[in-house]
Amino acid sequence: MAWLDIFHRRVPLGAAEAGRLRRWRELPEADLRAAPGAARFVVADVEATGLDVRSDRLIAIGAVTVEASRVALGRSFYAILRQPEASSRENILVHGIGATAQRAGSDPAAALLAFLEFAGRAPLVGFHAAFDDALIRRAMREHLGERWQGRWIDLAQLAPQLMPEEARARQHLDAWLERFGIGVFSRHDAAADALATAQLLLALLPRAAARRVATVETMLWDPADARWLGGRT
């Protein structure tokens, strides 16, 4: 398929951009043996031109930092990636990023480098993380030539594991946010959804501790089988 060609394309980067990418690659890996309540997480959400991860494009990334069970409100990230052409009117009605904003966005390589620098090597957190992961991975390969591999905690998998008695009734982010009284000032906005997801993570951490989830590693989403690793027997 044509979209797979980008996976094998060598992307020329300027000296400054190549240096930034090299410095990110040299960062030490996060300690996944850390206790979840003491760890640093980067909670991320994306907006895209559609729902097909094979062909739709990444439009925006929003992210916030959670450190030692607190949202670091002063440490947030948001970028709109410049698009060659704006997405459909129907798509714009979903995320609210208009045609002018899309065409005037940041250079994609620069935006992605800034995201890497913001996130460092911290484990990432999302809701239905497979979508976020696939869109960011494709963009990293296309614009940076980087075979990026994020380590994700997927709250869509974690929440039902920690609260199985409520899993059947709460299969969507809105339902879990309602359960904990978490408000969102603008749904389908990457920055606002990242903040709401971060608050959901904080609500779940005490339940993880009660179930003796001792390390970040046991919370990680496994893309091989789309299950929470801690749920394995």
Could you walk me through the main structural features you see in this protein, from its secondary elements to its overall organization?
- The protein is of the alpha/beta class and 233 residues long.
- The protein has one domain (31-220): Nucleotidyltransferase, domain 5, CATH 3.30.420.10.
- The chain is built from eight helices and seven strands, in the order αβββαααβαβαααββ.
- It has helices at 15-25, 89-95, 99-103, 108-119, 129-144, 155-162, 173-179, 190-210, and strands at 40-48, 58-67, 70-80, 124-126, 152-154, 221-222, 227-228.
- The strands form two sheets. Strands 3-2-1-4-5 form a five-stranded mixed beta sheet, sandwiched between helices. It has a two-stranded antiparallel ribbon with strand order 6-7.
- Strand 6 and strand 7 form a beta hairpin.
- It is globular and about 50 Å long.
- The protein starts with 14 loop residues before the first helix and ends in a 5-residue tail after the last strand.
- Mean pLDDT is 90; it is low at 1-8 and 227-233.
Keywords:
17% strand; 233 residues; alpha/beta; disordered C terminus; two-stranded antiparallel ribbon; Nucleotidyltransferase, domain 5; disordered N terminus
Helix content: 25-40%
What fold name goes in the CATH topology slot? Nucleotidyltransferase, domain 5
Specify Rg, calculated over alpha carbons: 18 Å
Tell me, rounded to a whole number, the average pLDDT. 90
Please state the second-level CATH architecture.
Answer: 2-Layer Sandwich
